[in-house]
Amino acid sequence: MTVADRTFEAIIFDWDGTAVPDRAADAEPVRSRVEALSQAGVDVAVVSGTHVSNIDGQLRARPAGPGRLYLCLNRGSEVFAVDEQGPQLVWRRTATPEEDARLDRAAALTIARLAATGLMAVLVSQRLNRRKIDLIPEPEWADPPKARLAELLDAVTERLRSHNIPNLGAAVELARDAAREAGLDDARVTSDAKHVEIGLTDKSDSARWVLDDLWRRGIGPGLVLIAGDEFGSMGGVTGSDAWMLIPEASRSFAVSVGQEPEGVPPGVLHVSGGPAVFVALLDDQLSRRECKRVPAVDEDPAWTLAIDGEVPELERVHESLLTLADGNFGTRGSREEDGEASDPLVVAQGIYSNPTGGLPALLPAPSWSDLTIEMAQPVKQRRVLDLRTGVLLRESASAAGSLRTFRFSSLANPGVMGLRAEGPAETLDAKPDLAPLSIAANSGGIAAATWTTSRTLDSRSTVERLARYLANPHQLPTVEEVVHGSQGLRERGFDRILAAHRAAWASRWADAQISIEGDPEAQLAARFGLFHLMASVADIGEAAVGARGLSGLAYLGHVFWDAEVFVLPVLAATHPTAARAMLEYRIRRLPAAQAAAAASGLCGARFPWESAGDGTDVTPRSARNHDGLLVAIPTGEYEEHITADVAWAAWHYAQWSGDSQFLSGPGRSLIAETARYWTSRVRHDSSGSAHLDGVEGPDEYHVPVDDNAFTNVMARWNLRRAAELAMRDGQAAPGEEIASWRKIADALVDGYDPTTGRYEQFAGFFKLEPLVIADFAPPPVAADVLLGPGRVAGAQIIKQADVLMLHHLIPDEVAPGSLLPNLSFYGPRTAHGSSLSPAIQAGLLARAGQPDDALPLLRLALRIDLDDLTGSTAGGLHLATFGGVWQALAYGFLGLWPAANGLTIHPQLPGEWTALEMTVRFAGQRVSVRAEPDAVTICAGAPVPVCLGGGSAVEVGPAPVQFKRKADAWERVTP
Ligand code: IFM
Description:
Blueprint: E1 10-14, H1 28-39, E2 43-47, H2 52-59, E3 69-73, E4 78-83, E5 86-92, H3 97-116, E6 122-127, E7 130-134, H4 149-162, H5 168-181, E8 188-191, E9 195-199, H6 203-216, E10 224-228, E11 253-256, E12 268-270, H7 274-290, E13 304-308, H8 315-321, E14 324-325, E15 329-331, E16 346-348, E17 352-353, E18 361-362, E19 371-373, E20 380-386, E21 391-398, E22 401-409, E23 416-424, E24 428-430, E25 437-440, E26 445-457, E27 460-472, H9 479-483, H10 486-510, E28 514-517, H11 520-535, H12 561-574, H13 576-587, H14 590-599, E29 622-624, E30 630-632, H15 635-638, H16 642-657, H17 660-664, H18 666-681, E31 683-684, E32 690-691, H19 709-728, H20 735-747, E33 752-753, E34 758-759, H21 783-787, H22 789-793, H23 803-809, H24 819-826, H25 837-847, H26 851-863, H27 879-893, E35 897-899, E36 902-905, E37 915-922, E38 925-932, E39 935-940, E40 944-948, E41 954-956, E42 961-966, E43 969-972
Parallel strand pairs: 1-2, 1-10, 2-3, 10-11, 11-12, 36-40
Antiparallel strand pairs: 3-4, 4-5, 6-7, 7-9, 8-9, 13-20, 14-15, 15-16, 17-18, 19-24, 20-21, 21-22, 22-23, 23-27, 25-26, 26-27, 28-37, 29-30, 31-32, 33-34, 35-36, 37-38, 38-39, 39-42, 40-41, 42-43
Helix pairs in contact: 1-7, 3-5, 11-27, 12-13, 12-16, 12-27, 13-16, 16-18, 16-19, 18-19, 19-20, 19-23, 23-25, 25-26, 25-27, 26-27
The structure holds 5-hydroxymethyl-3,4-dihydroxypiperidine.
């Protein structure tokens, strides 16, 4: 029997009256289905008010998995997990001695009051955390079959009325008042007609426990079926199964198979028919699994990006937005049948090729998601990307019927992809499989194969495909390697692989939560960016993170400072192994960077502005501009700050992760070799000051320049950290070298004017034509295109945050109090012609105590790709912008910073937000910080030091610690 055209991943159901007609019934029909569902990977939870010997004694299921079976018993106070060995208690809510005493008092008061009406009431059961009081004498109504419920209710109501209690609801109210008087404000009072029960838990606790367990494994409530027989009220008392309909279950599908004499609440489907119909529902779910139907997506508006309809001009943009990646392989969200407006692509991180002798670019791999789909003009089309679990659903409806596809790129098993499709037989056909093949790149390459099964039944076709990709930047993977193990993959099957994928995403998000309460649009956009960041970076080996990740070929997949400065911090703070893999990419290319420095007659290592496979500079030297003219690209020659940026990333990773071994080992080499570069790169003038001539800062409108403040101060910071590390590790460099690092750091000019508090962006900047960008166009604007490159070169108009990047990255290295003067000077001069810029300025405005002024810039950054604000999203997603947004939220609005004495927190919320909550990993522990306008709540997996609002460090552990704002300080309100 079909109640919904949906395949559920979990089923929560009531026992008595739903699964079995009564406690004496043979439960074999349910038992066999529960075991089969478990084998098919479906989780099942039985909810009942009674105890384990009753339910397990009757059900006797011994499932072998992989789906889990839970018995949620004793009215929400116990959960047992059942496997082949039988039930094991996994959770119990016991009353404290104080609660026990209150329950006793509540029961005594209730009995006394009922007796005062003349009704006989006695305590019949006292279990765990509840008291059960008889309304009518035993054994007359002991355990009546559900079929006699109406009869029972009439008899009880009549009896209650004869004692001046109008109905059952009034008896329940009387008990609730008694509980309140006894000090139990949150008592759960229920009735099954013959008893009144006062407890600390009810079925809502069962539902909450199960939904929470499922959520942690990536199964949202929209994938859950909740079945019962008593959702409707009875004699003025809420139906017992309605307690399962907690707010967290809002998207679950609820169905009643009961009689429901007073009807069902809104949102519950009433099918009646009792246990026989319930068993038919289970059969329907089993058959959907058997037929390999397309799985469902939990369409939570806080977690899903839905794209409705089809706009050919936007298709390439949408393909970028809907990219699925597993850290190693990325697949653009092109429709399975491709089409003219489409730019399908599969790439592997770090696998570059330049067969025609041009610059290396990510090597396009063969596609795994092609299907033959021939639909007449669809009447409805939508694609839904679930950010929480990394799955993409497509639904197209046409006169021929509806077509669905569903795919994922396994985060749990990178390189494994899954696709299912279903639709009218005449519209859907699987293309031939990708025969195992291997394609060579400049170095190494990619091997791939797919395995498809399809079938047609009742003129509907279903297709299931598994794909396997291998990539190796050093050695070409062979066809044999890709086929090897594929048998095991297919035996494991689509459903298990999908379950592991969902669980992997859920666990990633557990360390990287972002909630922006009061601003759902910003919250969704921030999660969208974070989803793509987490999907774009491998977490073992090395991770070459191109400017557009794995979502497009813009910038040919080259690695810029975008990786170290914009992307790495979010991973260092949420998934440190991925940040470490990004650093490994640079570590392995240190010899190439040393060779580059040596080729210029310099010491140490100079990292290239654009990097690909071998670590040499692959920056193009020219390109066509908007008018088709060939123009020079000077960045490769001049944007040397990348060298210090790599050192900063190594240091920053260690600050978040506490990985001190890294800084004593490969991290120290990165920092020392980059410092050595600066020692040989500087020019000393006659006064002994050190200069860096002929460079380009982040602002690419002015090049070449001398003494770019950003480059000089980053180099200074780089030299000082190299000296600090060498000293910390017992003079790991010669004493004279350490002294020279310090001396040069102190000698480097930085353009700071203490009278104004401003840094001059480069020598001579203050003498340029003073212009304010808003006089020409509202940012973001490509000012070089608008005004011409010559005009902007002679003006104080800058492309992106430059001096301000210092305040952002190394706040302890800049002059104290210089943030505001530089923000107010450079802010109006910044065109935000690079998508990297607005989020950084937003974060700094928040840090400077102007969170409301920061919001428009943050919103700009949040919409860069979602609204294709730069017109370049078709070429791939702007990962650096996503990273900047995360940093604006974490470092700016929440004021997080991984300092040596602990995690500092300094929240600055805009008026529109009621709370900002983020989870990070600091020093190996998960730390959650929730900021409200006047309160901050922090907890951590194990004690970590935190410093709130400039106060001294306090240890915070698993018990949430709350602070309240008192004038300008924060006062701890929980012990
Ligand atoms: O690295 C950036 C640079 O800062 C501005 N132009 C685009 C590059 C790649 O995103």
